[in-house]
Amino acid sequence: MKRKIAIAIISLVLVILYSGCVNTTEDSMENESLNTDSYQDTKDDTVDEDSTESEVNSDNSLTDIVDTVDSSKDEPSVEGDSSTNTTTSMKDDYLKKLNKMEEDDRNEEAKSTVVELEEQETERYTKWDKELNEIYKLLEEQLSKEQMDSLREEQRDWITSRDETAKEASLKYEGGSTESLEYVATQASLTRERCYELVASYME
C-alpha cells in the first residue's frame, strides 16, 4: 500500500515538472518570436530612415546641380574682345538711329503745295547728308589708312553718281514745277541709302 502511494506521488511530481518545462519552453519561444518581430520592426524603421535620408541627400544634390547650372548661366561670357563688343554695339546703335530717322520721315505729314514739298525734301536731304558726314568721320577713326583711302575714292564716285541719278530723274519733269522737287527728293533718298550702306559694310 505504501509503495503504491509513493509511486502515485512520484508520478504527480513528474507531471508537474513536465508541465513546468513545457510552459517554460513555450514562453521562451514566445519571447524569441517577440524579439524577432521587434528586431524586424527596428530594421524596417532603420531602412526607412536610411531611404528617406538618401532621398533627401539626392534632392539636395539635384538642387546643388541646378543652382550651379543657373549660376553659370548668370555669369557673363568672357569670350571675345571687349573692343569688338563695343564696336558691334556702336554699329547696332547707328542702325537703330537710322531706322528711327527713316520712320520719322514716313510719319511726317506731307505738305500740300509744290513749294512746301520742295522745302520739306530739302530738309530731309540736309538731315541725311549731315548724318552721312558724321558716319564718314567715325569711319576715318576706325579704318586703316589703306581702307580709308579706298573708301574716300569710292565716296567721291558715289557723290558723282548720286547727282547724276538725281539729274536724270528730274529731267522727266523738265520745264515743270516739280523738276527741282524731284532732283532734291532723289538726292535725299540716295543719301539715306548710302548711310545704311556705310554702316552695314564698314562699321564693325
- Distance between the amino and carboxyl termini: 134 Å
Largest sheet: none
- Helix coverage percent: over 70%
Order of helices and strands: HHHHH
Number of strand segments: 0
Low-confidence stretches: 21-26, 31-36, 38-43, 45-52, 54-84
Shape: elongated
- Estimate the strand proportion: under 5%
Q: What is the SS-derived class?
A: mainly alpha
Average residue-wise pLDDT = 75
Overall structural domain count:
2
> Helix count?
5
The value of Rg in angstroms is: 50 Å
Name the descriptors.
204 residues; mainly alpha; 2 domains; 87% helix
Secondary structure elements and pairings:
Layout lengths: L1 H73 L7 H26 L6 H29 L2 H26 L8 H24 L2
How would you summarize what this structure contains?
The protein is mainly α. It is 87% helix and 0% strand. It is elongated and about 165 Å long.
